[in-house]
Design goal:
Layout (H helix, E strand, L loop, with lengths): L1 H10 L6 H6 L2 E6 L5 E4 L9 E10 L8 E5 L4 E4 L5 E3 L2 E3 L12 E9 L4 E6 L2 E7 L12 E3 L13 E10 L5 H7 L15 E2 L1 H5 L3 E2 L3 E4 L8 H80 L17 H5 L20 H11 L13 H12 L1
Antiparallel strand pairs: 1-12, 1-15, 2-11, 2-14, 3-8, 3-12, 4-5, 4-11, 5-6, 6-7, 8-9, 9-10, 12-13
Helix pairs in contact: 1-5
Length: about 375
Amino acid sequence: MWTVCLIALALLVPPFQAEDTLRKYKALNFPGDSESFVSFFPDMTPFSKAFSFCGWIRKDNSSAGWPILLSYGGNELRMQDNGGHNCIYGACTRLANKFTAPLGNWFHYCATWSSESRQFREYIDGEIIASRATAQGRHLPPGLSFTLGNWGDGGLEGLQLEGLLFNFNFIAREFSREEVEERAGDMCELKDEEDGVYNLSWVNILGEERNGTVTEVDSVCLEKGAVESRLEEARKGVKQGEASLSTIRDELDNILDKVEAGTTDMLEMEQGQNISCQVELTSHLNKKRRELTKVSSLLNKVVRILQGGGKKENLSGEDDETSDLEKDRAASKWDFLYSDSYFNKEFTRQQSENLRSSWDKVCDKMVGVTITRKLIELMKSVDSD
């Protein structure tokens, strides 16, 4: 039990990962070949009725005709780094004239949708560039491939991405325009988590398997001049982790002290309970043994009576207090009528049926007659004749 408590307590420790504190500032570099992409199958069920996905893009080549930055289920969701063919639920539109950031420059892209609003909205650097309605009843289907840097399951020539992606997060609700503007402000002020809202975070994406030569690289947030503030954040995280570990260590020591102090008391209590149970069980067995002995004795007496031999038996189980006159009475097969089952009681047809084999000449005439001593003696005399 104490082991379970210790494990449960350990699970409650707030996780601290110093590496992740800095890793979330990493970008993914796509070198521009069709074999370099990230593709996996996340649980998209929470996004079926509402979602927002936002992130930063740096385009490094304009020669590719259909450079895909994100694709889910082919054209269920499809975004190109040049806006040439952006799709939702198979319906696509061209927004090339809106994607005007120069090569090598970072820009912020965000898309939002919900089944309630039925509006798919796209933003560049916090400004809305397109809004279109979706069909009634449409939802984002689960179980499809989620791909960055290519289309479908990846590997298609002419659809590869050349450039960097940073801090792309999928959130299971529709952002307002103000929330999109806020995220498009400071590139290094990360807003990748929300309490109580499911999200597919950038850290999750960084942990997925990659194809080809997609690599993690430093974003501008870790370049000289910006790294100090990130390191300070990491230092704060280390201190919080140390404080959490110290608290847990104290709690574990307290539990171990209680275990050590309580073990002797528990063993003594269990030993006392075992002795009490043994005494109670022995008493119960002795009582049952006495009852079985008494029943066995009574059964032996019944057998002797049914066999028709011997003197009248005492079937009460008590000491025999039969009078001397009865003890001296000659043994007869009719003596069993002195038993409690017959004596001074009305003779029944059932009893007649049971005894018919012994005295079938007179039993039918006795139905309804009370069995008395006088009748018993009379039957005995008749039988002797």
